[in-house]
Amino acid sequence: MNKNYVKTSRGVFTCFSSEEIKQNKPTLVFFAAMGINSAYLDFYNLFTFLDESKYNLISVDMLGSGFSSDPVYHQRTLENYSKEVSELLAKVGGSKLFIVSHSFSAVYLLNILHQKQKRLSSIGLDWN
């Protein structure tokens, strides 16, 4: 896994990804549950079972947690989280994006999906 920094106008996200992101493969983007400090650690065991020859794998630490920077907009609202993640996802490569959200992170990601972004789909893990 590579450690990458994705700079946005709202902060710098830390992402752990497959060795090389290929544009012709679908991309699975993992977001951890609230209170989990690192998405990489949250999904480490799952990553060992996924075939990197078929998928790009990326785990994202939300702004203000894990290895990511503090958010520029400190008010933590649904709208701010959604804009932060949307801006990050616009920079992620791959033929199609599948957002994999664990627990409470689904709230932000469902809001983004509700905005009908064309290349996004969702996979939920333990949505409460």
Question: What's the topology here?
Answer:
Blueprint: E1 2-8, E2 11-17, E3 27-31, H1 39-47, E4 56-61, H2 78-89, E5 97-102, H3 105-114, E6 120-125
Parallel strand pairs: 3-4, 3-5, 5-6
Antiparallel strand pairs: 1-2, 2-4
Helix pairs in contact: 2-3
Question: What would you note in describing this structure?
Answer:
The chain is an alpha/beta fold and 128 residues long. The protein has helices spanning 39-47, 78-89, 105-114, and strands spanning 2-8, 11-17, 27-31, 56-61, 97-102, 120-125. It is built from 3 helices and 6 strands. The N and C termini lie far apart (29 Å).
Low-confidence stretches: none
Order of helices and strands: EEEHEHEHE
Number of strands: 6
Q: What is the radius of gyration?
A: 13 Å
Shape: globular
Span between termini = 29 Å
User: Largest sheet at a glance?
Assistant: 6 strands, mixed
In terms of structural class, how would the helical and strand content be classed? Answer: alpha/beta
Tally the helices: what do you get? 3
Q: What percentage of the residues does DSSP assign to strands (E)?
A: 25-35%
Measured as a percent range, the helix fraction is 10-25%
